[in-house]
Structure formats: C-alpha cells, structure tokens
Amino acid sequence: MSTGANVDPGELAKFSALAHRWWDPTSEFRPLHEINPLRLGHIETLVGGLAGKRVLDVGCGGGILSEAMAVRGARVTGIDLAEKPLKVAMLHRLETGVEVDYRLVPAEQIADEMPAAFDVVTCMEMLEHVPDPASIVRACARAVKPGGWVFFATINRNPKSFLFAIVGAEYVLGLLPRGTHEYAKFITPSELARHGRAAGLAQAGLAGMTYNPITKVYAIGADVGVNYILATRRDV
Q1: pLDDT tens across 3-50, in order?
Q2: Contacts with 235 (C-beta within 8 Å, 6 or more apart), sequence order
Q3: Partner residues linked to 213 by β-bridges
Q4: Residue 178 annotated as binding site
Q5: Measured distance CA(173)–CA(94) in Å, rounded
Q6: Is there a binding annotation on residue 80?
Q7: Is 39 marked as a binding-site residue?
Q8: Are 232 and 150 in contact (CB under 8 A)?
C-alpha cells in the first residue's frame, strides 16, 4: 500500500470495528445486503450483463457486491484500504468458493498499475468517507477502458438527506450505527457529475435509492434526494 493514500483513518477504524459482522444480514450491514440485489440488477441492465466482463470494485469492504458480480460471471478485483473487512472478504471467499481477487491497495495506485484495464468500475458508498472524492473519481476513470462504465453510489447533500440518512437511519430507525455518516461529506449529483466530467466521464444515468420505513422495502427510482447511483461512461 502506498503512503499518502486518500483515506481517513477514523473512517477505516469505524468499519474495521464492525468487520466481523459484515456478512451477517441482521447486523449493521443489513441495508447493504438488502440493496445489493437492486444495485446489482441496475448495473447489469445498463452494461448489458456482467458475464465475461472485467470489473473493479473500489471500496469493496467485506465483498458483498464483489461476490455478487463474480457469481454473475464477472472477473472481479475488489480493493479496499480497511484491512479487517478485506480479510473478512477473503475468508468468505474461502467459504463460498466464489473467485474474487482482493487487494489492499488505493484506487489511485491500481489506476496507475492497471490503466484502462476494466470494462466496469463500481464505487459504492465510499466517496462520502474519503478526504478527496474527486481523486477517487479520477482514479476510477483511469482504470476503466474507453467506452467502459463507472458507477458511483453515494448520498446527496440537502436537508432531506440529513433528515433521512443521519437522523432517521442512524438515530430513529437504527438502520446504521450512529456516526456512520458526516453531513459535510455528502455530495450532490451535480458535484459528482462535475468531478466525472473533469475526469473524462460522461453521465449516462442517474437513479435514486429509496427506503420505505413502513413496508421496510428499498427501491430504485427517480428520487435522488437522499441515496443515488450515478452511472457514467469513459470518453472514447
């Protein structure tokens, strides 16, 4: 792992402390388990299927999305800078036999080592946890092939997102541990799209992820007020 990585030690410690619970669908990571089929389906629909494609999962954590994409036939490399969650991902790989190449390496470094090597790059629920999200966007753009897809999932910054993502999810409903998110680190879709354009990524889709606290059901739709997924393609 290179020095000077684009990482917040406090954020690494936060997720490392919960690493052993990553694959428990009733734990603090329940939301990730519940939204995973939705975001996986969204990605597959846009890219025309994952089978045979080379995929980089940036900020893979315990490997929930990485494994799911590998099951669909992708050749997946999962990277993270939190060592404990990455070890959990490796242990789960042994249990399931699903092939994923996990590496403890910054996105910027793998982009330097493997430029234009991937058909698809995913960066889910990570940008709001790093000091310099624009650097991650640039790294993802360098790692993907010309014409390839890059997906970013993060949280909008507005009064609604503060109410739902922090007050509601962390303090009222208990969907996430308190302190998981910092409002100041949230990113608006326009800011993220601007980072993408500066890195040579053109917006190719924008969808929201919503949660109904009554039915306890997640859905993908047009409401990007809180959680959203920005799909981009690298300029050819």
Answers
A1: 357 877 876 776 777 677 889 998 878 888 999 999 999 999 999 999
A2: 146, 200, 201, 202
A3: none
A4: no
A5: 34
A6: yes
A7: yes
A8: yes
59 assigned ligand-binding residue? yes
Model pLDDT for residues 106-119, shown as the tens digit of each residue: 999 999 999 999 99
Structure-model confidence comparison of residues 165 and 215, the more confident one: 215
What fold, for 9-152+191-203? Answer: Rossmann fold (3.40.50)
Residue 63, phi then psi, degrees to nearest 5 = 95, 20
3-state SS, the chain, equals CCCCCCCCHHHHHHHHCCHHHCCCCCCCCHHHHHHHHHHHHHHHHHHCCCCCCEEEEECCCCCHHHHHHHHCCCEEEEEECCHHHHHHHHHHHHHHCCCEEEEECCHHHHHHHCCCCEEEEEEECCHHHCCCHHHHHHHHHHHEEEEEEEEEEEECCCHHHHHHHHHHHHHHCCCCCCCCCCHHHCCCHHHHHHHHHHCCEEEEEEEEEEEECCCCEEEEECCCCCEEEEEEEECC
DSSP 1: -
